[in-house]
Design a protein that fits this description.
Strand order of the largest sheet: 1-2-3-4-5
Number of strands: 5
Mean pLDDT: 89
Radius of gyration: 17 Å
Order of helices and strands: HEHHEHEHEHE
Structural class: alpha/beta
């Protein structure tokens, strides 16, 4: 997020390829919300970005400009790296300021007829220590849509096990349904 919204590392396709794909999908009746990630920006850097009005404003402007330039129906933010690294104070700043950032972005996008979707990791309660920077309630009040990433229960860094156990998924969705009261959820 330095010079902010740009193709994913390793993607050599010009933006015109994205525009063509968006046009084709929209012609088929599919709403298109390209994903924007935080690509390596940890909680310390994200806390700094969200606390700096100029940098925050530049990122907001770049995201909205990308949506307008490509003709997308909105954007889906998939900011996961901001949960890692940094200090407990950094994470608290991110937890408090990220929903405000989302609210501002949603307002700008909605004024242009575009949507804001956000991908959030799986949590089973507000006190769940995993993914602590994600305040479902505050995020839910700040976006048009939320997608819950209900996968990776077991990964290469855990003991072997299921990727998406049904009981765990039910717990995640039950909690999410209490927190995301005003937005449609998808898994």
């Amino acid at each position: 997020l330095g010079s902010q919204v740009q193709p994913q590392t390793g993607n050599a396709n010009p933006e015109s390829t994205l525009v063509t794909a968006i046009d084709e999908l929209q012609a088929a009746g599919v709403a298109v919300l390209p994903s924007v990630t935080d690509d390596g920006i940890d909680s310390s850097e994200m806390a700094n970005l969200l606390s700096d009005a100029d940098r925050r404003g530049a990122l907001l402007t770049e995201i909205v400009a990308m949506v307008e330039r490509t003709g997308a129906d909105g954007v889906d933010l998939d900011f996961e790296d901001m949960n890692f690294g940094g200090t407990a104070s950094d994470k608290l700043v991110v937890k408090r300021r990220f929903p405000l950032f989302l609210e501002n972005l949603r307002s700008r996008l909605n004024s242009k007829g575009a949507l804001l979707s956000v991908a959030v990791p799986s949590r089973r309660s507000a006190s769940d220590p995993n993914w602590a920077v994600f305040d479902y309630d505050a995020i839910g009040r700040s976006v048009d849509r939320a997608r819950i990433m209900t996968y990776d229960y077991s990964t290469e860094s855990t003991d072997p096990g299921p990727i998406v156990p049904i009981g765990w998924t039910r717990e995640v969705m039950t909690y999410a349904a209490t927190e995301f009261r005003r937005v449609p959820l998808s898994v």
